[in-house]
Specification:
Layout lengths: L9 E4 L3 H12 L4 E5 L7 H4 L24 H9 L12 H18 L4 E5 L2 E5 L2 E4 L4 E3 L2 E4 L8 H4 L6 E2 L17 E4 L3 H12 L6 E5 L20 H4 L3 H15 L1 H18 L2 H19 L4 H12 L3 E13 L4 E7 L6 E5 L1 E4 L14 H5 L19 E3 L5 E7 L5 H4 L5 H16 L1
Parallel strand pairs: 1-2, 1-7, 2-3, 7-16, 8-14, 9-10, 9-14, 10-11
Antiparallel strand pairs: 4-5, 5-6, 11-12, 12-13, 15-16
Helix pairs in contact: 1-4, 1-14, 8-9
The structure holds flavin-adenine dinucleotide (FAD).
The site of flavin-adenine dinucleotide has 31 residues, from α1, β2, α2 and α6.
Length: 438
Amino acid sequence: MRRSDPSGPVVIIGGGFSGSMLAVRLAERGIASSLINRTPEFGPGVAYATPFDGHLLNVRAGRMSAVEDRPDDFIDWLSRHHPGHADAAGFVPRRLFGHYVQDRLAAAEAAHPGRIDRVVGEAVAIESDGVRLADGRVVPARAVVLATGNPAPRMAADDSSGDRVLGDPWVAGVLARIGADDDVLIVGSGLTMVDLLLQLTAGGWRGRATALSRRGLLPRAHRIHHEVPTDPTPGMVAGPASRRLGDGRRLARSDGWRAMMDGLRPVTADLWRAADPAVRARLLRHLRPWWDVHRHRLAPVVATAIDGLVADGRLRVVAGRARRIAATSGSVTLHWTPRHSATPETLTTGWLIDCSGPGHDPARSALTGPLLEAGRAQLDTLGLGLALDADGRVLQADGTPDPGLFVLGPPARAAFWESIAVPDIRRHLEAVVTALAG
Ligand SMILES: Cc1cc2nc3c(=O)[nH]c(=O)nc-3n(C[C@H](O)[C@H](O)[C@H](O)COP(=O)(O)OP(=O)(O)OC[C@H]3O[C@@H](n4cnc5c(N)ncnc54)[C@H](O)[C@@H]3O)c2cc1C
């Protein structure tokens, strides 16, 4: 970015948790921002806008403070507004967290009038001195932060999406067309699949579901009581990757895998950044599915509900690779290949829902595609996202960081790996604030 006016506002694209809390923290430091969101609902973003009370946080309330230096902020807020939920070890409805973020944003606006400018619109281009919206307006910027969250999955969108294919599982009301006795096929067996099944069953759905994922793994569950994280052993954070894995396994056996995984949390981003591309590639290829199901866990009550569906024969999880979708007017057929097999098979049901995970692809995004073409950004070597420096600044094609262009939240995963959940985002957010304040 060319800093046309160094005293001008920081433009934040995305008014979900990441963008809203960044605006709050900047306002507290005396920095003005324009916060752009495509809808007038600022704060909850995709994750916390759900009105359904069965959609619970997958992180204990005590770890969900939106502010890095006030660890009890969310619990204190719950004590004041929803005292029945103010249990640090509990898993509260996600919509409450959405209200909390909205409150934090409104409080910052009241305390620092004029420092946060809400702009409703679709950001379509990052230009040298501002951000262009779809309606032609240009929001002037001295720096831009991309906090655009998780894009919709791409698997179904890339295929022949008929009207029996539900391509974006995060769109409100997406399940409304599914009949009470309809069977569904879900591509993906992670947290989004779980979300959809909870919502379907709460609405009286009696059908059966087949979930397909590469390994056929389901997310593991949290324990009811908080597990105390175990610090990683020295062997887990240095030396060859295979030895680190061995040390991790030993620690998991002695102290429990949950304690081992949680102990890795604070150092994961540093370990990821320190790893060379070959090690990162091996992690993605071999470890990622296991990492995901042990790291992104289910609230115990949710795990019980999913176990019940499996026990009743209403949820079957199969391992394999989706190949092609063929949709007709009354059904949809998925061509797939089972894991460890070369023989293609088909699955035919009433509906296919794409829960294959966020379709991050900076080269195809209207915002970042032109930056890549112009050499103002580069992809990381594994194609996970834009390459960034340790503070989240976009690295240009020549390797130098752009001092006025940052990425925060899920799209920063190439640089930090763990940039998805609130505890990680709020930490990265402080680095962005410090960089912008400097
Ligand atoms: C279903 C779900 C449940 C989750 N549950 C948890 C949980 O329990 N605990 C936890 O720690 N994490 C959870 N997460 C992780 C979640 O990613 C983060 O907690 C956090 O919500 C990410 O916020 P964000 O602002 O980065 O992204 P988002 O919430 O996706 O917000 C991005 C915003 O940017 C807007 N936007 C995008 N592009 C543009 C554009 N071009 N112009 C204008 N506006 C744009 C979008 O409309 C959206 O409002 C969950 C994620 C999902 C998807």
